[in-house]
Amino acid sequence: xxxxxxxxxxxxxxxxxxxxxxxxxxxxxxxxxxxxxxxxxxxxxxxxxxxxxxxxxxxxxxxxxxxxxxxxxxxxxxxxxxxxxxxxxxxxxxxxxxxxxxxxxx
Length: 106
Known about the structure:
Elements: E1 6-14, H1 25-39, E2 43-52, E3 58-71, H2 76-90, E4 98-103
Antiparallel strand pairs: 1-3, 1-4, 2-3
Helix pairs in contact: 1-2
């Protein structure tokens, strides 16, 4: 029997708004709690993010990375678009980074 195709999805969730204001950690947790149940699990990591804003200014910010490993299914791209809009709108962001790639699970 063939194994299902698996993917890893990484959601980069900020801790500051596009204007540099701190985001309430409960609001971040609310967003994360909207995402992980769809995939029945996830791992939240913290780290420092570096990026160049549309203004051209280099920025450094603390952020969360929510990593999810799940089976590949056709609707997941629509889910990612919805979650990207939710993160952008609810956390006041210029843009949001979500990546995904196929993986092999032994």
